Structure to design on (492 residues):
């Protein structure tokens, strides 16, 4: 059944489902804090040594500036399509569909496949099935089951998903804080130094840029909470507040963990030192036994496992809502705009993204484990692309109103502009670094595989825009987004 609806923002979702606390939990969960810090901190330390906290702080700056842009745009246009709607209204339908729709969705889909794989591998390891955890196909099969289970949870509604996230997020934060406190309390551990926050002590701009780019990944994902704005109480205000709170909590958690790890392990190249490349891929797993003992080290493994699963669940909540908005505005097939009459969730979209995640995971796993790893690395290029474009969209959209007040000039102009330029600078630097065949695990005719995957995703998006333009001429001709209908379809 298709019913026209006069309210531009009403797409059939359950309004007022969550408040500020649940929104913050969704934002924090989507970044997978335990997983992100364990797979990133070691590489940052390899680049800048004990200045890893400084890199984390600097990497946070463009994220914070971009968060201001997201907050201001959400206040003006609280739509679950977020970047798609905002970029469309600022720059037109082609840019909106590509930079606000395609790019974040592809980045999220690759991340979802990686998160499912990580959660599966850690789960098998926790169960003592070491041989199974080393078998790519077994890990992929278990990962598909995890995706299926979380898809069911996401389809049941935001309240159910948010309730589960409280438990999963609480375990992560307790594990990270407990680990950090235990590391700092160990005998012989030197206290943290404020000099570790000094970015001017870095050897070169190249090291500085590489470390900051690595740090962008660990903050990415907080914007997923804004896709639930139409289901949040006070949708124009609460999502923006939750975005700012979640990013600041992330910064505090990461800095505390980094200070604790550097204090305990140091940056030497041997043993547990952060300069040892063997520790870089999983810092917390390497350090948990000497810090916590073998028994409690399992808690850290569990934290990383649920961290990946928690972020995957948030992605299964956010991506279908973005597609729901794209369909409601006439930029995707109407099936994506179907809302389950009982659960009031994008039922078709949720199942679609769960299935697509499983398909991507199985395909990349069958091709090569290295190929999947490089696909994950290319996400940084996509993040910088759509974050930077959205920040500049804020400046352009409000350009005629920037002189209304100092607040408008500062929060809608100066800060988003700085964030957008920093993000686009990160995009250029990422592309330059990724072109090197030594970047990542694969290469093709002297060109880095990570670069080819990243630019290939963008090129595929350009082709997808041309295809969508032919399939949905009304949307691309109008140049503005207007909800064409609210689609409520009976689903089992």
């Amino acid at each position: 059944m298709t019913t026209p609806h006069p309210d531009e923002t009403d797409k059939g979702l359950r309004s007022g489902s969550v408040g500020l606390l649940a929104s913050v939990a969704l934002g924090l969960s989507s970044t997978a804090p335990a997983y992100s810090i364990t797979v990133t901190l070691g590489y940052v330390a390899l680049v800048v040594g004990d200045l890893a906290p400084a890199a984390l702080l600097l990497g946070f700056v463009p994220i914070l500036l971009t968060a201001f842009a997201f907050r201001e745009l959400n206040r003006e246009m609280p739509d679950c399509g977020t970047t798609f709607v905002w970029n469309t209204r600022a720059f037109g339908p082609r840019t909106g569909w590509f930079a606000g729709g395609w790019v974040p969705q592809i980045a999220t889909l690759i991340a979802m496949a990686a998160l499912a794989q990580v959660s599966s591998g850690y789960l098998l390891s926790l169960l003592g099935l070491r041989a199974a955890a080393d078998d790519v196909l077994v890990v992929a099969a278990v990962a598909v089951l995890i995706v299926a289970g979380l898809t069911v949870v996401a389809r049941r509604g935001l309240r159910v998903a948010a309730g589960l996230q409280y438990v999963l997020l609480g375990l992560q934060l307790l594990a990270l804080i407990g680990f950090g406190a235990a590391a700092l309390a160990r005998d012989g551990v030197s206290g943290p130094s404020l000099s570790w926050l000094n970015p001017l002590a870095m050897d070169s701009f190249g090291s500085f840029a590489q470390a900051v780019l690595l740090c962008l990944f660990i903050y990415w994902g907080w914007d997923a909470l804004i896709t639930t704005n139409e289901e949040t109480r006070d949708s124009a205000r609460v999502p923006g507040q939750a975005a700012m709170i979640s990013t600041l909590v992330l910064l505090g958690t990461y800095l505390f963990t980094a200070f604790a790890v550097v204090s305990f392990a140091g940056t030497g190249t041997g043993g547990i030192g952060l300069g040892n490349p063997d520790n870089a891929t999983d810092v917390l797993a390497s350090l948990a036994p000497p810090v916590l003992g073998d028994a409690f080290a399992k808690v850290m493994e569990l934290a990383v496992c649920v961290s990946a699963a928690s972020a995957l669940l948030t992605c299964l909540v956010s991506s279908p809502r973005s597609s729901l908005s794209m369909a409601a505005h006439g930029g995707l097939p109407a099936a994506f705009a179907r809302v389950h009459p009982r659960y009031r969730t994008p039922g078709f979209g949720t199942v679609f993204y769960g299935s697509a995640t499983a398909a991507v995971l199985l395909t990349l796993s069958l091709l090569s484990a290295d190929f999947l790893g490089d696909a994950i690395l290319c996400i940084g290029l996509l993040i910088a692309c759509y974050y930077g474009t959205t920040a500049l969209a804020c400046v352009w959209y409000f350009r005629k109103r920037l002189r209304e007040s100092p607040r408008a000039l500062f929060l809608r102009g100066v800060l988003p502009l700085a964030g957008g330029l920093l993000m686009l600078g990160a995009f250029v630097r990422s592309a330059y670094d990724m072109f090197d065949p030594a970047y990542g695990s694969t290469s093709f005719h002297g060109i880095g595989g990570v670069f080819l995957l990243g630019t290939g995703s963008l090129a595929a998006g350009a082709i997808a825009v041309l295809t969508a333009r032919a399939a949905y001429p009304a949307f691309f001709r109008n140049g503005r987004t207007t909800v064409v209908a609210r689609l409520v379809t009976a689903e089992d």
The mean pLDDT is 84. DSSP finds 17 helices and five strands in the chain. Strands lie at 2-3, 338-339, 443-444, 447-448, 486-488.
